[in-house]
Amino acid sequence: MSDLRQQILVTAKILLIKHGYHGLSMRQIAEAVGVSKAALYYHFKDKEELLLAILVAYLDEIEAVIDQVRAEGGDSRQQVLLLIENVLSQPAEKRALIRLSSQEMAQLSVPARATFDRAYHEKFIDKIRGLLRAGMDQGELRSMDPDVATWTLLGMMYPYFYPAHTADVPPPADVAEQLASIYLDGMASR
Amino acid sequence: MSDLRQQILVTAKILLIKHGYHGLSMRQIAEAVGVSKAALYYHFKDKEELLLAILVAYLDEIEAVIDQVRAEGGDSRQQVLLLIENVLSQPAEKRALIRLSSQEMAQLSVPARATFDRAYHEKFIDKIRGLLRAGMDQGELRSMDPDVATWTLLGMMYPYFYPAHTADVPPPADVAEQLASIYLDGMASR
DNA sequence: CCTACCGATCGGTAGG
DNA sequence: CCTACCGATCGGTAGG
Fold this sequence. Notes:
- 2 copies of one chain form a homodimer.
- Chain A contains 10 helices and no strands.
- Helices cover 74% and strands 0% of the residues of chain A.
- The first copy, chain A, is elongated, with a radius of gyration of 18 Å.
- In chain A, α2 packs across α3 (37-43), α5 (76-88) packs across α7 (110-137) and α5 packs antiparallel against α10.
- Chain A has 2 domains: 1-44, Arc Repressor Mutant, subunit A (Orthogonal Bundle); 47-185, Tetracycline Repressor, domain 2 (Orthogonal Bundle).
- Chain A is mostly helical.
- The structure holds a DNA duplex (16 and 16 nucleotides).
């Protein structure tokens, strides 16, 4: 992986967060990096491949966060708290990327969307669902549709993936506590 | 309000949901309506004003839904259930617009964003927060930061504002029940 | 003079 | 990786 490729990814990621896929031009990226537009096309087949590289690289980071939470042990309820804390304490830029993943998916071509969707579920959704399902099996969480449980947890964090809420800093730690408290009480086994 | 203006709004709304702001051209809208591009510019100063008109018109619909829920009475916990049921049973197109509102806000110019932001809070966020705060004052909901309570409720519904989840039909009624159950148990007074 | 458009084209920029 | 371009399309506006 060349230095320039890395530099392109870093710069393009920042611009993508600010402008979205269609609002961002290859010309713009090239100028920000300080290279010609052709240089971008040397490293990435087209605009879509560049977007995909940014998003998939980020999915790897998310996966690492989730794996770390699961490895740190504790029961599933502690893991949910830890997950919320870890996700919300990410820098605003990283949280924005989670939102962009689902948001810009619709802009992808059919094959690219299929590729991304697979990684999105494998590295992100399925991992969280696995954590929650384990908690249900252990009787630590109430038994319900694991998909609804997963998307509810993600959804609760979603507002903090928008710039409007973040003001470019992570939300205070007590927001994570409040979210965890609502979710865990709502998901308590009965 | 002329017929053509209405027709433009209806058509542009559908295209906006599919393509997003930057992915949608005035040309495309004009062709879909069956008029010239100049006709669009007769009714709307520019592309941004058209987007704004679509979103603000939809905020009025949301406001009506919330007002209706509050008018139907019942305690705040019943109103939360009713709100979730009503929002999730909206057609996929309407739910997609809620997501677009927050999503495309970032693409607006500074003055346009200020205008929209005011309407967004007045007709949507503040109404829900008012409902929840009333519930807290009555002791029907646990006392906590009303903003966190509001965004948690909205966030839980967010996944169902994405096409990936909706498959163009409303989620089954028991999803609304499950969401309400998690939220209301998590928000139960203690 | 008006409202409600039209066909054609402007200067720039898109992805490649 | 660059310079020099392309076919097409972008948002917006001219005169009538």
